[in-house]
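Please complete every field before forwarding. Incomplete forms are returned to the sender.

SECTION A: IDENTIFIERS
Entry label: holo-402
Bound molecule: pyridoxal-5'-phosphate
Molecule representation: SMILES string

SECTION B: INPUTS
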Amino acid sequence: MTRFAKRIGGGINPAYGRIFAMFDQPGVISLGDGVPDASTFPAAELEKTTKEVFEDFKNDSSFTNKLFSYWESAGVPELVSVLEERYMGKFESGNPEKDTLLTFAGAQQVIDLAARVFLDPGDTIIVEENSYGGAITAFRSYEANVIGVATDEEGIVPEALEAALKADPNVKLIYTIATFSNPMGIETTLARRQAMYDLAVKYDVIILEDSPYFELRYSGEYIPSIKSLDKTGHVIFAGSLSKIVSPGVRLGFAIGSKEIMQVIGAEKDNQTIGNPGLIQLAVAKYLREYDLDAHIAEACDLYRKKRDAMLKALENELGGVASWTHPEGGFFLWLTLPEGVSGDEFSAYVAEQKKVIIYPGSMYRPDGKDINAVRLNFSVPTEEQIDECIKRIADGLREFMK
Ligand SMILES: Cc1ncc(COP(=O)(O)O)c(C=O)c1O
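SECTION C: PREDICTED COMPLEX
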């Protein structure tokens, strides 16, 4: 038998196996994904800027051209500067005097590296009660305890956070998706952001603020990032181009204190020796030469319609039976089923009998508890598919509860 490290793996929940088995079956519609609508990808623009990058190389093929070299591990300077202007400037998530911005292969690499530089085996990381599965598994691979803390529609409950910090001196990190969370679609209020930051300072732990969705807002007012409240270097802000440009570019960034980013940058060297120059150069040109805000506004118009279609379909089909979050942005909505309904069993039933893929709440919980909730994605399906899926889910629920 192949002897993998103890920290790898664990078996797969049989309910998830039943859902995954349905993926490629004919007639199946997925509300399970976490990706943008493919029609939003700026394919023609990136084709053009990629060609221009090659043209630039033809005009200067010396070593100083980064196209075919190893280059700055910190990120190709053209990309770093355009991201600094946008995220430390326009959105004020970081202070150019005190903080450093580095590029990464998506926010996922930031998550992994933050865990790597802060968590010794047995250390604790606090997350929202329902959180991003890809982060939970990354934290576990550093043999950390991942603790979910009570979270309501305003974000992590400060009293619960303080109790968890008090109870465990080995807490090193708080991981939060404060804006349009995956999986719940909720947004932490400004007061709760401030409370979270104050507690991080009081107990001297670092907050990893993972924010790949914050620019995808369909209603409501912009809430400043936790990083923008940071006066002491306790917050790392992770951003991503995956949801606003495309996941395939594999580009994200992090903004943190100079001290922290130096250590994270050194560990990034150990992993990858920088990210590919070609895509960084092509994306930097894209960000400089095209209007990203206009691109995002267009995508938001599309997603707003889809969100509204899902909310309306839920009201029509499940009003009075189930409850759900009302996201102001992002890709997800959290559906709470009637008391006692197993999210694991219901998701598997809906996949097999109704040919709709949804993921159970347990997938997003560090305790893996089977709860009466599921995550629904509205960014990928069409409005017609959303209507159809919610009908099938409602039919499925009636049958399932018999
Ligand atoms: C909350 C959250 N963080 C990080 C990621 C990964 O982002 P990236 O593609 O930038 O690595 C995702 C992707 O779904 C996500 O939902």
